[in-house]
């Protein structure tokens, strides 16, 4: 069966990697150092419905501090060895690659963290990898991947777990696929998504129309 997209661009944290608990832990660990509000246990679920900009306002985190916090976040993650891929992600990448689809990754995380979590076999399946993207700089990186791949925007899909992922995809003319497993609640993402993936294990099946077991 023909795959509807020639290029699939994945986000990393919350899309391929199960890192939400670490995100909460790291955010609270950095709050005192960079003088913004920590995330209270009782507000986690409500914050999952917010855009990243709204969450920053809620935490009192100004934009000028964001690069500092992002670098510190990456350093903290580099010290951890318990961040793993969601179940089914590795198989989905293999199946999509076997169908001849170009695969890419665009993330604000570091190349070192991505490599350790994905592992060499999965990294080898990626045709393009853009790391340490600024939090609101995904549009430029998506355009770069489109140029590198030679794929027209309407033949590509960006798969992510945040509202800013969908906005970036729409701004460059790509489709957006929302995952239910990530940082933002699916109910908040569904309105701007061209496809919804309830389970990472369903990625390959939904995108190729082939059932895998």
Automatic annotation (TrEMBL):
Gene Ontology cellular-component terms for this entry are: cytosol
Q: Which GO terms describe its molecular function?
A: phosphoglycolate phosphatase activity
Point out the gene that encodes the protein: csfA
Q: Which terms does the UniProt entry file under GO BP?
A: DNA repair
Source organism: Chitiniphilus shinanonensis
The organism's superkingdom is given as Bacteria
Alphabetized SUPFAM superfamilies for the sequence: HAD-like
Q: Which Pfam families match?
A: HAD_2
**What is the protein name for this chain?**
Haloacid dehalogenase
């Amino acid at each position: 069966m023909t795959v509807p997209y020639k290029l699939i661009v994945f986000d990393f944290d919350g899309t391929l990697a199960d890192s939400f608990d670490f995100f909460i832990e790291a955010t609270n660990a950095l709050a005192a150092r960079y003088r913004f509000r920590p995330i209270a246990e009782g507000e986690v679920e409500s914050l999952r419905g917010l855009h990243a900009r709204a969450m920053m306002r809620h935490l009192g985190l100004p934009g000028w501090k964001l690069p500092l916090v992002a670098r510190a976040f990456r350093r903290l993650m580099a010290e951890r060895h318990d961040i793993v891929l969601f179940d089914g992600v590795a198989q989905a990448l293999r199946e999509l690659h076997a169908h001849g689809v170009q695969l890419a990754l665009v993330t604000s995380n570091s190349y070192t963290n991505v490599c350790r979590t994905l592992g060499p076999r999965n990294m080898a399946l990626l045709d393009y990898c853009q790391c340490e993207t600024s939090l609101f700089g995904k549009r430029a990186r998506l355009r770069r991947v489109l140029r590198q791949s030679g794929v027209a925007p309407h033949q590509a899909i960006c798969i992510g777990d945040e509202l800013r992922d969908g906005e970036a995809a729409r701004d460059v003319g790509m489709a957006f696929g929302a995952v239910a497993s990530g940082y933002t609640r699916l109910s908040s993402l569904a309105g701007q998504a061209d496809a919804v993936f309830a389970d990472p294990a369903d990625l390959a099946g939904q995108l190729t129309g082939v059932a895998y077991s």
